Amino acid sequence: MRYTIVKMVGLGALLLSLQACGGQSKESEPQVAAIPGATTSASAGPAGSSSGADRQLPLGATGQEIDRVYDAYYACWVQHGVPSAPGENGGPLLSYKMDQAKYQPAVDACADKEPLGAPELDPQQNPNFADDLREQLRCVQSHGLSMEIRQAGTDNAGLWVAPETKANLEKANSAAGREIQRQCEISAFTQK
Predict the structure, then answer these.
(1) Where is this region: Disordered (predicted)?
(2) Between 20 and 107, residue with greater pLDDT
(3) What does the alpha-carbon distance between residue 99 and residue 103 come to, in Å, rounded to a whole number?
(4) Residues 11, 121: contact at Cβ < 8 Å?
(5) Could you tell me what percent of the chain has a pLDDT over 70?
(6) Under DSSP, is residue 13 helix (H, G, I), strand (E, B) or coil?
(7) What band does 181 get if pLDDT is binned at 50, 70 and 90?
(8) What's the pLDDT score for residue 153?
């Protein structure tokens, strides 16, 4: 399952194996990075490409919802020649990371299937984003999760486990911790 303990704005900025706030990654990575050349716009891809509804994740998406969308996205990569690297943390994402220049054309060919984050989590679409993120932080902290807001790039802010101790990471990555994060995301970012 592709989960993470952090919520970063725009799934295009995700390292594609990570989930929004409500989950955990296989590697338990508390951060994300952008994939060069990847797009996050709902208009990505040529005319007649897959609809945004097929790849649009709702606010507070569950692990199953995220898996469904990413499985379709990675299947497209494989169809366009990205091999699935072996191992527990393998798959097409690992192959891409090992040779980005070689596999970037496949990633570009699948831009119309790239998962889209909830519009509420995009500071370009949500004028209340900063206030909502602070509200989400207060919520997770009130439930005993040790997190802080950090910038990742110029416009992408999100929640990160801090300090990144083994105990804090395990607590945030537990099923209960992921559910707290998901519920706090929904509560904070739902328009009032």
Answers:
(1) 38-58
(2) 107
(3) 6
(4) no
(5) 71
(6) helix
(7) very high
(8) 64
Q: Rg for the chain (alpha carbons), in Å? A: 16
Q: Look at the block and give the residue holding tokens 């303990």.
A: 5
- Domain chopping of the chain, boundaries: 11-16+36-118
Beta-bridge partner residues of 127 = none
Place of tokens 């990569």: 77
For 139-179, the pLDDT digits (tens) are 999 999 999 999 876 667 899 999 999 999 999 999 999 99
Report how far residue 5's alpha carbon sits from residue 135's, in angstroms, rounded to the nearest whole number: 17
**Distance, CA of 142 to CA of 5 (rounded, Å):** 16
CA distance to 67, 69, 120, per residue, from 50 (Å): 17, 12, 22
Cα 46 to chain center, whole Å? 24
- Single out the residue of 124, 139, 145 nearest to residue 187, CA to CA: 139
Sign of CA dihedral 70, 76, 79, 83: negative
φ/ψ (deg, to 5) at 123: -60, -20
Whose tokens are 């995301």? That residue is 185
Let me know: does 133 contact 6? Beta carbons within 8 Å: no
Please give the Cα distance from 87 to 77 (Å, whole number): 18
Residue given tokens 């909502």 in the structure block: 132
